[in-house]
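Thread title: Can someone regenerate the structure for this chain?

I was given the following input by a collaborator and told the matching structure tokens would be attached. They weren't. Posting the sequence so someone can regenerate them.
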Amino acid sequence: MTDELELLKKDWQKKEFNVPKLSYDEIHKMIWKKSSSIVKWILIISILEFTVPQLLYLLPSFREGMEIYENIGIAKYLKVLSGFTYLVAFYFIYQFYKRFKEISVLDNSKNLMKKIIKTRKTVKHYVIFSLSMIMVIIIIMIIGVYLNDNIASAFPELKDSLENISAEKLKVTVMLTIGIFGIILTLAMAGIYFLLYGLLLRKLKNNYSELKHLAV
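Best answer:
Regenerated them for you:
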């Protein structure tokens, strides 16, 4: 039994001896590369998230569907809100690009940790802003319906089927439908953000923990 134990010890020592030992700089470089790649993906996703929905305007059916905003009387308000949203979206995309460029292989662990924290905060603020804008649009739509005295005119294709419904009942039904749809859409987008950005943020958090352990 003793001989077998000694053999196991010697075998373990050989394995331990054969494992390459990484230096501080090598570990730091590995974490930097992972962090840089994660921030790059955050930048790419944010750009795609901004550009892909714009392509919908090329579809005639989508442009026709947007006419409902004109019918409700909120189109001009949504245009102003869209302009504001674009400016803020450009700002966040620039911030992600800036964070990506800031991460340098020459940085020490302390500076890299600060940049990881900064990036995670920026992503969280971006997600909160995006979800808030969805809710603001829904609220504007509900207010538009509430202030519209002839809501049936907003749905000319359903004119015949809406004749037997009172204006007040139709208004309440449309407001509730928009509200429920808004909640579902916000939750769905929150889930998507959680899957995409949440996964990347968790990886950044792990990198931060590794750097913190490395700095000790």
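Confidence is low (pLDDT under 50) at residues 15-19.
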